[in-house]
Amino acid sequence: MTGKTRALYLGGASALAIGAASIFIPGQAEAACEATPIFEGETVVSVDVTCDDTAPTITAPFDTSFDDIYLGGGPDTLNMSGGSIEAGVAGTATPPVDGFEENLNPSPNIDMLGGNDTVVISGGTIGTGGTTGTPIDVNLGAGDDRFEMSGGTLFGNVFGEVEGEAPGIDTFVISGGTVTGSLFGLGGGNIYDISGGLVQGSLFAGSQNDRVTISGTANIQVNTAVGPDSVGLEDGDDVFTMTGGTLGGSVSGNAGNDLLTISGGTIGNYVAGNEGDDQIEISGGSIADDVRGNEGVDQVTISGGTIGGDVEGETVRLYGGTIGGDITGISGNTLIINGSVVANPLTLRNGVLFSGTGGVATITDEDLAAGGTKTQNFTGFNTVSASNSTLGFGTGTQGIGLLSLTNASTLFVNGNANLAGNLNLTNSTINMIDGAADDVFTLGGLTLNSGTIGLDLNQQTSQADQLIASAFAANGVNTILVNLVGTPQFATTTDIPIIISTNGPVAGTFVIQGIPGTVGSLFIFQVIPGPTGGLLIRAIPANFGIAVAPNSAVNASTVETAIDALYGVNRDAIASDLGLANGVQRVQLTSTFGVFASGQFAHTEHDGFTISGNGLTAPGPDFDADDFSAAISLDFNAAKHFGFDDRYGLNLGLFGGYASTDVGMGSLQGFDFIGDADNKSGMFGGYALFRQGVNYGLVSASTFIGETDVTSGVLNTTGSYDTIGYAVTGSIGHIFALSDRMRFDLRGGMLGVSFTGDDYTDSGGNQFGKSRISFGAFKFEPGIYADYAMENGMVFSPYARADLQQRFAYKNTATIDNREIDFDDADFSVALSAGFNLKMSERSTLSSELRGKFSSDSSTVGGKLGLKISF
Asked: Where is the Autotransporter domain (predicted)?
């Protein structure tokens, strides 16, 4: 808009419509004009402006610029939807209207003056900004005025009216647009509803009982010339509600008993009640700094949202939300923490401080310790009561007169903690378990009422977590849980003090045990009264054989794999040299030397050994094993070489190979993971096969040398040790011809085995002695074989075989801390095998076999697939 500046005073006008480019006073630069009011009855409804001959008479719309717009007494309305109102240089006064004096102010304003006036801005611009611009303030004046803004820009402030000058109740409704200054309610019990738009300054509510609502996308920043507040409620009993939007600064209640409710939005600084007995309720949103009641007897309730700083109030209720600072100012009224009121979790910082004077705290259904990962500090509290809740104390002194834990509550203690007062523990737990036996909890007094104490105990250092109490009493049945740390001592019994008190012997019943699923469960614990009071723990090694169960299992599996490989070599030699299985069984290097190979995969499921040691016998954990073996043999036909093959057969063989087993243990005694182990061995040996007609005898021997890697889930350690084993077999047999295609092999013999695992020290310092397996066995191995010629020239040779074994003198031992543990399983087993050889040509044979072995304790399924080609 353009034109020379004028000052226009409209006395008693009931309405002034300032639309898009619709402002009074003509735009000609030097036109002389006069304004004439148009009446309806006694009310001025519009104004005609008539100018001299230098410009035509102008009716709306008008194009102009103002210093001031004065709307006098009466219910005036300023409605702006576009255009601009700009301040110019003060000039000639506008002619007086209706007897009022001319008015030419040195600074531009829109003054509504008296009456219940309304200002509505939905577009356009009032004033100018920037360093060279001139802002225009809107003064609502006396009366119950209303300021609405949904668009446009006001370069300036909005003022109500001061108390003592008939301020009235002003209403501010802003849903859009921009106010570059601040909103000043001044006097009156004003109402603010800010749901959008931008106020670059602050909102100062007024000196009486105001109501302020911030929601939606409202954005109020800070008038830094006045202070840090985005919203200053000022005097009076004010009500502040925030459900959304953004405040760049703080919210201050100032004088009066204020109610501040915040459920959403973002506040860039603190929230303070200040003078008066204030109530602050926070269920959502984000506050960057503190929430303070400050002066007065204040109540702060937090059920959600995020607070970056401290919370201060005489009464504080914490139901949910996140608080980054401390909780302070608690008086004898109360601190209430309850995790069952709202669904939002309560999150406090680690090491949070609760402080007050004569404070009283009640904590219900809240995991303040976060499972033992967080601590709290209390100072200035007469009593703290916790029900179905957790607390955490670290190193330092807790200023609590009486701490009561009830209804399955848990107090975690880590470090050197002190409680100046007394602790009553009823159906609740003191948990000092953290993996190190170095915690000390010193109390003025301790009373156990069917309580539980969990602590760490280290046999090597003869230390345990301790409670030191000047007075100690125990009622009901109390439980002590022991977490054994460090290297356990399986060779000796240890006595270690856990509760130190000087008030004499303690009456009461104690149940003590190691924690299931830990190494402590391998001991029997007893509570021993201290010489002057207090209690000691006696640790007695018990059924600790489970600690070496992985060693025993992998040793047994290594032996079984090596024996199966040895018998595989034996069976191939017999089948080849006696012609039991048709096909090319070996590759002939010369007329007297041949080579053949064998190998197999197997999977074993074992129900577990019976463990005996330390006067106790118990079932051990089940385990499974994946086995592999492969061997290559050099066969020498000695009978042919020395020229007596027409009467006897004699074959001598040497073989070498590889065997591996991978063992995984099942669960037992609360241990989900007992351990696992694997062994890799190289093997070598030889055999001699003598035959006369359909009768034969075979002897063989094998040595297998390897290394075992073992992981103990019981001891939480790892280790490795070298192994060596020997196996010797002897068999005799007779072959019966059932038909021209079928033969029956009746075979039996004996087996002897010796195996040793070296001693070693595992990663936890546990000393393992030698482990051993030795036994003898009788074996009975009947089998049936057949050959079928096919039309395509191939020969199909199926077979089936049984293997019945009866062990004797079985010994399977492992040693830890010089204590030998025995492992035993079934001595009788049956194995069944079925397979075939398919002779595809003179030089190639395809072979396959499935094998199952069963006993009352185990089952094994194995198989092999091979292709043999001669050159």
From this structure: 588-871
Q: Label each residue of 174-236 as H, E or C.
A: EEEEEECCCEEEECCCCEEEEEEEEECCCEECCCCCCEEEECCCCEECCCCCCCCEEEECCCC
Torsion angles phi and psi, residue 631, rounded to 5 = -145, 150
Residue in 3, 36, 8 with CA at minimum distance from that of residue 109: 8
- Identify the DSSP state of 432: -
- CATH for the 549-869 domain, from 2.160.20.10, 2.40.128.130, 3.30.70.20, 1.10.10.10: 2.40.128.130
Q: What is the pLDDT of residue 513?
A: 85
Looking up tokens 């409209």, which residue turns up?
Answer: 10
Burial of 330 per CB tally in 10 Å (0-12, 13-18, 19+): buried
What pLDDT score was predicted for residue 504? 62
Token reading at 358: 């004569």
Backbone torsion region of residue 303, taken as left when φ is above 0, otherwise alpha when ψ lies between -120 and 50, otherwise beta: alpha
Six token digits for residue 442: 């010193």
Residue carrying the six token digits 């008030």: 503
pLDDT of residue 812: 97
Strand, coil or helix: what is 372?
Answer: helix
Mean pLDDT of the chain: 85
Q: Is the pLDDT of residue 614 over 50?
A: yes
State the sign of the Cα–Cα–Cα–Cα dihedral 431, 434, 436, 439.
negative
Q: Supply the pLDDT for residue 30.
A: 37
pTM of this structure: 0.72
Domain ranges of the chain: 549-869
